[in-house]
Amino acid sequence: MTSPIAVLTSPRRREILRLVWTEERAAGEIHRALADITFGAVSQHLKALDTGGLVAMRREGRRRLYRARREALGPVASMLESLWSDALYRLTLRAELEESRRGPHPHRPRRRARRTGGHR
Amino acid sequence: MTSPIAVLTSPRRREILRLVWTEERAAGEIHRALADITFGAVSQHLKALDTGGLVAMRREGRRRLYRARREALGPVASMLESLWSDALYRLTLRAELEESRRGPHPHRPRRRARRTGGHR
DNA sequence: CGAACACTTTAGTTTCAACTAAAGTGTCGT
DNA sequence: ACGACACTTTAGTTGAAACTAAAGTGTTCG
Hints:
Two copies of one chain form a homodimer.
Chain A: H1 4-7, H2 11-19, E1 25-26, H3 27-34, H4 39-51, E2 55-60, E3 63-68, H5 75-84, H6 87-101
Antiparallel strand pairs in A: 1-3, 2-3
Helix pairs in contact in A: 2-4, 3-4
Chain A binds a DNA duplex through helix 3 and helix 4.
């Protein structure tokens, strides 16, 4: 996944992008805002967004602050803004997220077996 | 997959939408234009686009003619147009499609075992 | 130093979208 | 009525993305 549009394929990543659209936020803040996902998963999404050039990162002490690189998004930026400012779209986004939360979209296991193998 | 943006998630569907953007085309024409995909798969994509309200369909004899419902796309339409008119994006799209063609993205089996079960 | 914190990376699991092959549906021409 | 055509639907497979848990990295501060 390397092109901007491919990165925006995921509703979760669009939600994260939205969180850092106007304000810079730390990874932990983003995690708290999403609530039903592990820190690791958030970090992975942030990495994807960063690699795709959609966000910029800045270290500040032990925190890492992210912000959307709106300049770099061109027409995609205005599309996202239009969508976010549209009440209908807010419903849509909500629906998408509920799908990925409740209805097991990507991975939502009840229980997990203890890891078998060693690690790295 | 029910919202416009979710439907456009797939590069293949964006390619199809592009084919019917200015001209109405029959499912078969679209299939011929894509070449490395089965008719069934094309039909499935067309259904998704139709369900999402991105294309309109019209029967004409035994053919089914599809066209993009540009009016209904709002800001998404202008994004797509900008992207398609951008040479850089054309490379991007090509790359995405090659990924999904060669590098086995979604399903590209060398051989297939004969179906086991009955049908419907 | 070392513990707490903030975050990333790794290894492994699960689900689902995109696909194929084949059967099904409807229309036209003879 | 029937065969050819144009397309859709169904049933099943698979690769990869999204996830989790746990280990790893780096920074601050007592």
